[in-house]
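Long-time lurker. I teach an intro course on protein structure, and each term I like to show students one example going from raw sequence to a predicted 3D structure in token notation. This year I'd like something fresh instead of my usual example. Would anyone be willing to generate the tokens for the chain below so I can use it in lecture? Attribution to the forum is fine with me.
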Amino acid sequence: PALILGAVVERMKFSSFLVFIAIWLLAVYCPLAYMVWGGGWIFNAGAIDFAGGLVVHMSSGFSALVAAIMLGKRRGFGREPMPPHSLPLCLIGAGLLWAGWFGFNAGSALSATPLAALALLNTSTAASMAVLVWAVIEWMHRGKPTALGAATAAVAGLVASTPACGNVSPMGASAVGFGGSVICYCAVTFVKPMLGYDDSLDAFGVHGLGGTWGALATGLFATSLGSGIETNAQQILVQLKSIGFTAVYAPALTFVILYGLKLT
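-- Reply from a regular --
Happy to contribute to a lecture. Here you go:
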């Protein structure tokens, strides 16, 4: 819910959001959680989503894009600068997220085991690589790296690590963070201005596409360290099927829910 709300901030009544998220939880999140973790078709197909790249980040990120487009742009969007009002708070938030993500990812092992330790290490490795790569790209593109960019990069790396952290090696996690940083930077820097949608906190660019890359990278870099699953063509195909389904299911239902709210 927080990710979707970040995309439509200042444009949706609180009462409407409460109704929306209650329906969205039951219609989008719960069915996806069952499909991926509870014995549904994605689970039975063998797709890997260790801590929620599909269930959490793709579902909310793609839903956020639909919500941002349907609700329209904020007043003054594109004509006046809209930077964060407090960079210190942004960095504090990013630090809290980074620390909390250890519980989010490593906690998905459900016990204090070597698998939890691997997930924790991979989570921080992916985020660290993402920050480094984003800083270099920003330096080359804008002439200097920024603290705000580093905060965004950290979240991008953390998002990308979410589905993969229990099933890749630390070297694989580095590749996950590298790819997530490049993809998310291009999304928020080039794609969003080109398409003109107003996603206030880049929920789609960072969480939607970051989660998509993480889900694909899980198949590309999977090892037997966590689950006994090794990367192969079949695993990559299964990951792509699960990505394709989530990319259609979540935004389609979000559109239906929001359209119903608009009518009422």
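Some talking points for your students: Residues 233-263 form the longest helix (31 residues). The two ends are 21 Å apart (CA to CA).
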